[in-house]
Amino acid sequence: MYRNFRHAVALIGLLTSFALAQPQKEAGSSVAPIYSLPEDGTWAEYRFLSGDGKQGTMRTSSVGSKLVDNRPHRWIEFKMIGKGFKSRFGKFLIDEAAFQKTGPLATHVAVGYYRQGDKGPVLALKGKAIDDYFTMGIGGKLKRIQTTRVTTPAGVFDAEEFVASGKTPNGDPLEYRCWLSSKLPFGLAKFEVFRVQDGKKILAFRAEITRTGKDARSEVDHTAANLPQPGRPMP
User: Fold this and answer.
1) Cβ(208)–Cβ(193) below 8 Å
2) Which residues pair with 111 in a beta bridge?
3) Can you name the residues that pair with 58 across neighbouring β-strands?
4) I need a surface site. Which of 26, 61, 95, 220 has the fewest CB within 10 A?
5) What is the number of domains present in the chain?
6) What is the 3-state secondary structure (H, E, C) of 177-234?
7) pLDDT (tens digit, 9 = 90+) per residue, 119-144?
8) How far is CA 24 from CA 28, 36, 115, 186, in A?
9) Is 226 inside any structural domain?
10) pTM of the model
């Protein structure tokens, strides 16, 4: 599944103000692209490397809020850019209460959208497509390993190290490892995914935080997509 960059991108696909809330890390928590919710307008950038040598930048941004069934939700956007592939964007409206609970983050997504290329069509995501985006193809639960310090281009941070496991459709084991820090927006300092084949660990994807900011703006016009729209359930 992760032998080429297209699959590695799919791994990421591609969530009150929590203002640098403690990363979600209770027993039973699932793999996710973000683990806490900072104040709106915050963004975090990561540099990434895929298993086939592709490199680029990922950005996670909080770009607005909306009430859905009288519950506060937050618009979260994901962007991947680099050389040799089309830019990719994801936009999701996530229940803010999700960060006070365990379990899959994807179950708290009201609507989701995807765009490939700067001028590509905006497509609505549903069902398994949202699940795969948020679990990165890894269905196992997070297991805490240790309290440690992690070095990234953005600095050195106190962190909690977690692991999870899964399998590719071909049956190859997957190993996920992440370092979560309450000092960072969205909680994520670094993560790695390896595919295990014939006893050897093969890098599928690695990302580490490089910088953060507070002037995030939406780059995905979800109103241009076909239904569903916010406030309407996914079909």
Assistant:
1) no
2) 93
3) 46, 80
4) 26
5) 1
6) EEEECCCCCCCEEEEEEEEEECCEEEEEEEEEEEEEECCCCCCCCHHHCCCCCCCCCC
7) 888 988 877 778 777 766 677 788 99
8) 10, 6, 28, 10
9) no
10) 0.81
